[in-house]
Structure formats: structure tokens, C-alpha cells
Amino acid sequence: MEAQSTSEPLLTRKRRREGSNRENDEGERLVKIPRCTVGLKHPAPFADELEADGKPYERVNMEQAKRGTPPDRPVRVYADGIFDVFHSGHARALMQAKCLFPNTHLIVGVCSDDLTHTYKGFTVMNEDERYDAIRHCRYVDEVVRNAPWTLTPEFLTRHRIDFVAHDDIPYSSAGSDDVYKHIKDAGMFAPTQRTEGISTSDIITRIVRDYDVYVRRNLQRGYTAKELNVSFINEKKYHLQERVDKVKRKVRDVEEKSKEFVQKVEEKSIDLIQKWEEKSREFIGNFLQMFGPEGALKHMLKEGKGRMLQAISPRQSPNSSPTREERSPSPTFRLPFFNKASPPPSPPPHHSGARGYLISEDDDEDDEN
User: Fold this and answer.
1) Contact, 362 vs 345, CB < 8 A?
2) Are residues 85 and 172 in contact, defined by beta-carbon separation less than 8 angstroms?
């Protein structure tokens, strides 16, 4: 039940073909599931290593399987295949088979190398590698080694199989238009959906298409030409191509760096030009403020010129001087025994000596008399 609920959002997602940008399809909504740490710690066992179940075997029908079976009687679903270069398409098919019913025991049959090479062709992985890859898939409960190409009633009974899961596309092989026809007629077929855009043939096609790239990469990693089945001439050719590609990469790196440098220089030059324009405007404004027609220098010169003229030119005398009558009378000094008023004192002597009493002219005349 838990596997079915957690995998349901994944079944609604469509797989894009090669070259997609991994964006969500229109109308597709990703559902986040809670984080959990539950998982298997051991690989799935092989069928020939399990003890035989002595209980009588009775097949369940589709209605009973969908309604749910007791915990001690899971629905035994069988899925077979080659599973060469195990990929996510294989895993998703097994996930669908595991989630067909609420209580499912998934048995996976893997064909041997001899059978596969006879009916389908050469494989990339050998049978032991393919067996081990299936054992470590989380949805698998049991693995059947050397599975038959065509399912017989004896095989179905021996492994107590209730349903066979596979995609609904007719699989023509071994002289038959559909090797699952008798399973469908018996009502034991449970269809699953293929994952578009990925298959073992597609992966091999990519490798063949980019054969030179993978050979050069493996030569660089230390594989020998003999291990890669590459001739001496081709080995030298690949080494030469690798050197040429290195030179191209260096040239490309230099071009990118030079573009970045030119871009940085342009940005800095634009910044410098803007700063220069701002500074030039500021300098011109300060220059005009200092040396312009109404600048500070002109006012300074005018003020300095006025001060110089005031310093070198004498102060002008007044146009008219006051008369003797307009002058204020000078104070006189009279002796106590003279009744005659004393004349105003004469101006003080220019010598810087002792100060003395000033006597008016009338006093001088009285002295002479």
C-alpha cells in the first residue's frame, strides 16, 4: 500500500525524449512526498535459493487481487525481460508491476546469455551482471535466473504465478506474433506502460553514434587499444584528434578570456569617461566661478586695486578753513593781580620738552610796560 501511494505521482509524469530541457509538461504538477528512511538492506533472493512452499496453490482472479488478499497470501506477479544496461525504464516497469495490487509479491525472470543471443542478439552486460542488477532493484522480491523465453503452464505452476506483467504491445519472437497471447487468453495478463524516450537500444545507439568520442575518452583513461579493439592506425588518429581538440579548447578559452577582458575594458572605459565628464563639468564650473566675467578673481582685483589707490593717494584737504573768529577762543592764564584779560596762548612749542605755562600777547605788553 505504501509503495503504491508513494509511486502514484511518478506514474503521472511523462518522460521527455533526448534533448529535452527537463521542464514540466503543460498541466503536469509535481507532488512532493514526505521524507522517509525506510529501505531494504539486502538484495532480492534467487528463486532457486528459497525453500519450497508446501501449501496448496490456488490462483486468485483479477477481482480478488484488486480487492486485496490476506497478508500471508500476496498476489504473485511475474515480469520477465533481458534487462541489459539496466536503466530507469526498466525500474519504472517493475515499479508498475509492484503497484498493480495492494498486496503484491514481484517475481522477475531474467533470460540467460545463450537464450538472449539466440533470439534477440548480443548483450552489453553478461547474465551475471544482469542478474545482480535486478537483485538490487527496490521493487523486486524474487529473481528467477535462466528464465524461459516462452512461459509454459509448468513454469507458472512451479513458481505459483497469478499474473504476468508486461506492456500491452505484441511481442513477436520465437516464431510467434505475440509470445504472451496464451497468457492474455487465460486472463493472467496485467498490462503496464512503457517509458517513452529511453530503452537499451536507444542507449546503444547513442554509444555507436558517438563511438569515436567514447574510444578517445577511454584511451585517455588508460585503456589500451587492444582492450578497445582499436587498430594501431586508429589509435594514433584518436591521439592526434585529442591533441587537436586540446588546442581548440585552449584557443576557445583564450577567445573567451579575451572577450571577457575586452568587455571589462569597455565597462571600465565607459565608467572612466563618465567620471571624466563629471570632473570636467565640475572643473569648468569652478574655473568660471573663479575666472569668469563675474568671478571671484575680478572682485578680488577690484578690491585690491581700490586698496592700493587708497594707500598711494594723499587724503584731500578740505576746501575751506575756519576763520579766526570762527575758531574757538584759546584759554588764557591770568595772574591774580592783573585785571586785563590775557590773550589766547600761543601754540605749543614743537620740541618735546617740559611743559610750561603759556602767556598771551597782552601779558607780554604789560610786562614790557
Assistant:
1) no
2) no
CA distance 352 to 165: 143
List Cβ<8 Å contacts ≥24 apart for 115-123.
115/146, 115/148, 115/149, 116/82, 116/84, 119/149, 119/173, 119/174, 120/82, 120/173, 123/82, 123/84
Q: Which residues pair with 108 in a beta bridge?
A: 79, 143
| Spatial distance between the Cα atoms of 80 and 75, rounded to a whole number of angstroms | 16
Ranked by mean pLDDT, the top range of 59-68, 128-137, 277-286 is: 128-137
* CA gap 127, 129 in Å, rounded: 5
Give this prediction's pTM.
0.60
* C-alpha–C-alpha distance, residues 323 and 336, integer Å: 31
Could you list the beta-strand ranges (E) of the chain: 75-81, 104-110, 142-145, 163-167, 189-192
From the list 199, 162, 177, the residue with the least C-alpha distance to 85 is: 199
- What's the rounded Cα separation, in Å, for the pair 72 and 50? 16
- Give the separation between CA 263 and CA 30, rounded to whole angstroms: 41
Distance CA 272, CA 260 (A): 18
Highest average pLDDT, of 172-176, 256-260, 293-297, comes from: 256-260
Residue 320 vs residues 317, 325, 326, 330, 347: alpha-carbon distances, Å: 9, 14, 12, 21, 21
Q: Are 162 and 65 in contact (CB under 8 A)?
A: yes
Q: Give tens-digit pLDDT for 327-356.
A: 555 555 554 544 545 555 555 554 444 444
pLDDT per residue as tens digits for the range 156-165: 999 999 999 9
Angle (CA) 12-22-93 rounded to 5° is 40
Block residue for cell numbers 531494504: 40
Give residues with Cβ within 8 angstroms of 135, minimum separation 6.
43, 44, 46, 143
